[in-house]
Amino acid sequence: MAKVTVDGIEVEVPNGATVLQACEAAGKEIPRFCYHERLSVAGNCRMCLVEVEKAPKPVASCAYPVADGMVVKTDSPVVRNARRGVMEFLLINHPLDCPICDQGGECDLQDQAVGYGMDHSRYREAKRSVKDKNIGPLIKTIMTRCIQCTRCVRFSAEVAGTAELGGTNRGENLEIGTYVEKALTSELSGNLIDICPVGALTSRPYAFVSRPWELRKTEGVDVQDATGTNIRIDTRGPEVLRILPRINEDVNEEWMADRGRFSFDGLKRKRLDRPWLRVDGKLRQASWPEAFAAIAGRLKGLRGDRIGAIAGDLVEAESLLALKALMAKLGSENLDCRTDGAAIDVTRPDFYRFNTTIAGIEEADALLIIGSNPRTEAPVINARIRKRWVAGRFRIGRIGPAGLDLTYSHEHLGEGPEAIRALLDGSHPFMEVLKTAKNPMVLLGRGALMRADGLAVLAAAWEVARQANALRDDWHGFNLLHLFGGQVGALALGFLPGAGGQDLGQMLGGGVDALWLLGADGVDPATIAPGTFVIYQGHHGDRIAGRADVILPGAAYTEKDGTWVNTEGRVQRGHLAVYPPGEAREDWRIIRAASEALGATLPFDSLAQLRAAMPLEEGFARRFAADATGPSGDPAAMSGAPFVLPLANYHQADVIARASDVMAQCAATYAAPLAVAAE
């Protein structure tokens, strides 16, 4: 440890720390533009200049290492003059367009110009102008504002793993761009907007929409993938205007995937805002009493075993618990939440969780990916894997379709279960990599379980982890990566067939006379047997709503207080940001009202009462299981069919994204397959 004196305050910092870190440890604010805690040091903006005793001139604190006994001054006349000079140079070519800039009100350049700049400029020459670049439908560029901090360049290369941005020309003619004009291909591109300290990169969908002080900010959870990204929902009146990530070091750090960030316009399109009832083969608008009367008229005469319920992928825990309780009151054990048909063993939580945890990826030293493309299934988790890979000594093997670009190099072991067999019998050398690793990881994609031999694949992946010594008291290396935010909560609550109950295929195939679909937008209406009475409860008029006999308009995840469980089993709460449109209501309230009409009144009247009966505690505790007993399934029963990835279209993978115009533009822009991986 080195002892450093900062403005008379003595602090101890680790050897190798920078002067900037020492200043922050002493509680001193240091202005910066190019420096970012999660990116490599560039040292090119010079705004962080400080005075170091015995140094001949001010030094860039972000790139200058500490030394024992160093004395630093952060607010001396020399420092103030140096910073004013730097700010004057930065503003030489910066346009005076703050009144129309979307970064206005939350701009680092504005804030630091007021705090550290001069009150006048000595520059009278004409400002330079830079042509704007078209880098896709998500990011708007006004490159005349760019101060060449290179944060975007470093983020693209280091975090996103798509080195598409860089500088051309030199000196005053330097421009940041994509060299050849093209759309950015990263699923994390929206984070460039957050890290840009000026208004050079802004959100295209949010352009000229509002000012930050007009917005109401609500904390929430992104449910459009299973990462559980912590988000802030910015609203004005009844409308969501933008969604931004919040910092959570254990989950998403400060990053967010593009689909969750930009598909919010789908929350106001194709919405169901009133009940509908099928009369004489046609859907017509109805009142809530009429809808409940129609449901009661059909369900009251049925035995419990002829009624079924299917839950979708974006449903919060409270509504799942309410519907499960209603089915129990009606005497039905026919429940299922696996609308994709995935074979999952729920007898133990570690059979269906990401047990290493997302933050625990950084402790691993070998990884095997089976039947998954983390880049599209969970872009933020993929960035964490890349972060560990960049750190070095991290071998990665993958079994699945060839030619994927995961943004990091890996070994392609095969396309199907034959490669798993080769690992289990020791004939493939990558098994030795896993066995010699201290903390090996096996990452199984949910898509690998969406097949007839899904349980066998699950058991085989577990056996690979067991043979690699990844199932220990101090390390659990088996991980199942889910696709959406409501999937793990449904499994944890046991929204699955009970004793003698029917599963998804049996219910759809005619095993029930009445089927309650709670946000089950992934169900293909063509698979529902003719004559089945279908109740659809959800927030979008997607394809499955057209098959319904009764439509009950529910609330989207931004329109209710809800509990979601991410892929690692972390329980998180989201809060109501805007009210549902029209006559739509929160889903648990709809189920509670329907229970009265059915004569099976549920024993709760408030969200607090419902949560009191819910066996999920908010928070997260990392759990390890020394029990290496595997899930049900015989590895020998695996077929030879290659694995197929579950998300053919990343940008339109869920019902909200399918209703989004922005995501439709992205789907059209990125219709061409991703570049072939460097393997």
From TrEMBL:
It holds the Pfam family Fer2_4. CDD domains: fer2, MopB_Res-Cmplx1_Nad11. Residues 2-78 form the 2Fe-2S ferredoxin-type domain. Keywords: 2Fe-2S, 4Fe-4S, Iron, Iron-sulfur, Metal-binding, NAD, Quinone, Translocase. Its cofactor is [2Fe-2S] cluster; [4Fe-4S] cluster. It comes from the Bacteria. Its EC number is 7.1.1.-. Residues 78-117 form the 4Fe-4S His(Cys)3-ligated-type domain. Binds 1 [2Fe-2S] cluster per subunit. Residues 215-271 form the 4Fe-4S Mo/W bis-MGD-type domain. PANTHER family: NADH-UBIQUINONE OXIDOREDUCTASE 75 KDA SUBUNIT, MITOCHONDRIAL (PTHR43105:SF13), RESPIRATORY NITRATE REDUCTASE (PTHR43105). This is NADH-quinone oxidoreductase. It comes from Falsiroseomonas tokyonensis. The gene is nuoG.
